[in-house]
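Practice problem: TetR/AcrR family transcriptional regulator
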Amino acid sequence: MPTSAPPSNRFERRRAETRGALVRAARQILAETGDTGVSIQVIAERADVGFGSFYNHFESKTELFEAAVRDALEEFGRTFDEHLAGIDDPAELVAAGFRLSARMAESHPELMQVLRRRGLGHIHSENGLARRALRDVEVGMASGRFTAVDPTVALSALGGTLLSLVELRFARPDVDGDDAAVNLAEMVLRMLGVPPDDAHEVARRPLPDLA
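Answer key — C-alpha cells:
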C-alpha cells in the first residue's frame, strides 16, 4: 500500500495530528476494554482534543473505531513486512507469521489486544495482514509449495487459527507461547499440504529479532 504524502502546511499537519490522536485514543480503548459505547467526550479527553474536533474527522464513533482497527491491522502487516522481508519461502513466511504473532503479545500488547477483540471481522479485509497473507498463500499454491485449494478458504483457516493463538496468549499466560506457536505453525503447514518432516523443520527455523 502506498504511503500517503505528508501534510504540506500547518493546517493540514494539525488536522492530521488531531485525527491521529483520536485514532490512538480509540485503539487504546479497544485494547483495554473493547467498549465502543464510551462517549465522544471520553474519547476526545483521552485524545486531548476539543469535543468539536471529533466531527471534523469522523461522522460517528463507529467510523472512528473502524479506522482504529484498520490502523492497528495495517501496523501489524507492516511489522511483518519489516521483519520477514528476507524470507521468500511461502511455508516459512506462514510459520514465522504465527511465531512472531505469539511474541508480539508481549512486545506489542495494545496492537494484539485490538486484533484479539476485533480481528475476526477483518480476516478477509483488503488491508493489514489479510491481503499479505492471501498473497503468500496464492504464491505458495502457484509454486506447488501448498496444495491447490481455494485461497479464500485457506485464508479463513489461517486467520481463525492465528486469532485462536492470540486468544491463547492472553487467556492462558501460563502456556509457553513460543512452543504453542511452533506447534500450531507445523499443524497449519501440514494442513496446507507441506510434507510432515518438512513442516516440522520449517516451523522451527530461526526467527528474526523483534527488538
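Discussion: The CA atoms of residues 40 and 61 lie 7 Å apart. Students who identified this feature from the C-alpha cells alone can consider the problem solved.
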